[in-house]
Amino acid sequence: MARLQIDAIAKTYGADHAVREVSLDIADGEFMVLLGPSGCGKSTLLRMIAGLEEPTSGRILLDGTDITDTAPQQRDLAMVFQSYALYPHLTVAKNIGFPLRARRQPRARIAERVTEVAKTLELSALLDRRPAALSGGQRQRVALARAMVRDPGAFLMDEPLSNLDAKLRSATRAELIALHRRLGATFLYVTHDQVEAMTMATRIALLDAGRIEQVGTPEELYDRPRTAFVAGFLGSPPMNLFPAVVSWRDGGLRVLSDGIDAALDITADSGDDSAVLAGIRPEQLRIDRAASAVRGRVTMVENLGSEELVHVTVGADSLCARMPRPCGVRAGDDVGFRVDPAHIHLFHPDSGLRLTWQEPQSVSPEPSAAAVPVP
Q1: What pTM, to 2 d.p., does this model score?
Q2: Are 115 and 151 within 8 A, CB to CB?
Q3: Domain end: 180, 212, 233, which one?
Q4: 159 in the Ramachandran plot: left (φ > 0), alpha (ψ -120 to 50) or beta?
Q5: Which of 43, 106, 108, 171, by CA, is between 20 and 30 Å from 302?
Q6: Are residues 120 and 180 in the same domain?
Q7: What's the per-residue H, E or C state across 123-159?
Q8: pLDDT of residue 269
Q9: Do 107 and 49 share a structural domain?
Q10: Is residue 206 located within the same domain as residue 161?
Q11: Per-residue confidence at 366, pLDDT binned at 50, 70, 90?
């Protein structure tokens, strides 16, 4: 298979920076997902790896070999496009076998590989059909089969499920996970859908404005976001973020804001007040009418079937709590919430970097290779 190394890759279009010196090491057999909002540079990065875009600077290595200037067809990589890019006048069998015919492989070898790959993706009964006679999910599997047929070092996928409906997307997602486990191949997958990223990836690289905000397992990004952007991007609904002050009281630190007085899981002898951006995941807020950690007025309750989203005005901020149905409150109720101190996140109000307590400072940025100096 293949190890992909991206070394300080950048791409500019005039004065616009689409990708800003991104470095990433993708291990052999890994399922790496490039995640981020539209326009963050993830598809441009993938196209540079595939050889469809020329980097402004930086290097791309495949198993230690520099392929930055190698022609796309000579890279040991297979690309699966969002639009499938199937030839409408060719049968499924000929679509799958096209990469081998382009390399002038013997007919017997082509037929053998097409049969093998079609069986793996359950396409054997469809080999004589043309793309117009296939469903969206079947077309997606044909596109995957065409990528698999030449046994590439790595698979590059650019939002391959975005054209499918919700039910088919879920089923195809499960098929891709099973396929990755079966093949043990290196997958580099681009998406803006966090559900795809969280369920499929062994690691996620979350991008914003052409830069990597954080790289890690889905659990690491969700449970310990390195920046406020990561915290606010992951989660549905996302993390509640609000301006607050960390203040020392009676041997401990508390987060204070209008309607919020919550203890932190930190003990300290003393400390100066520090302005922060505080964060609490919606599922960590629990209704407790006697609690004073968070108090506010319910503005709306959304019924999601097994769960309910409770929207609450707390001071000048709007927070959301996620809990099993029925939650027992309705719009107009004044309610209190409790929250585990260990589940309160703190970020620098200007840089957005995650904060940790360090003596003798009151609050300081968490050490990180991506950290920027914080005044």
Answers
A1: 0.86
A2: no
A3: 233
A4: left
A5: 171
A6: yes
A7: CHHHCCCCHHHCCHHHHHHHHHHHHHCCCCCEEEEEC
A8: 63
A9: yes
A10: yes
A11: low
